[in-house]
Amino acid sequence: MTVQQDLQKAVASAQSSLGTYSVFAESTQDQSAKQMFKDMSKDMQRHIDVLNNRLKYISDNNDMNQPLNQ
């Protein structure tokens, strides 16, 4: 598996967790738990953003993705 594929799997996993935390936040009546899950959702979104930025960097700087000089 390539680094790019590993990062894509990590993004998918993080997106799944983000969705789960969001559902938990909406489902609970406990205000402290609601805030905790909202905070976890925000943290997970930051993780997703970092992973996506790294994916973009790898894609933009991978020699295999560059046009051939003619």
Explain this structure.
This is Ferritin-related protein. The chain has helices at residues 3-27, 31-61. The protein has 70 residues and is mainly α. It has one domain. Helix 1 (3-27) packs antiparallel against helix 2 (31-61). The protein is elongated. The model has no long low-confidence stretch (mean pLDDT 92).
Spell out the key features of this protein:
single chain; 70 residues; mainly alpha; 80% helix
Calculate Rg over CA atoms.
17 Å
Shape: elongated
Query: What is the mean pLDDT?
Result: 92
Q: Portion of residues in helices? A: over 70%
SSE ordering: HH
Task: Tell me how many strands there are.
Answer: 0
- Number of domain units: 1
H/I helix tally: 2
Major sheet attributes: none
Strand content: under 5%
Rounded to the nearest angstrom, the distance between the terminal CA atoms is 31 Å
Outline the low-pLDDT stretches: none
Derived from helix and strand composition plus strand pairing, the structural class reads mainly alpha
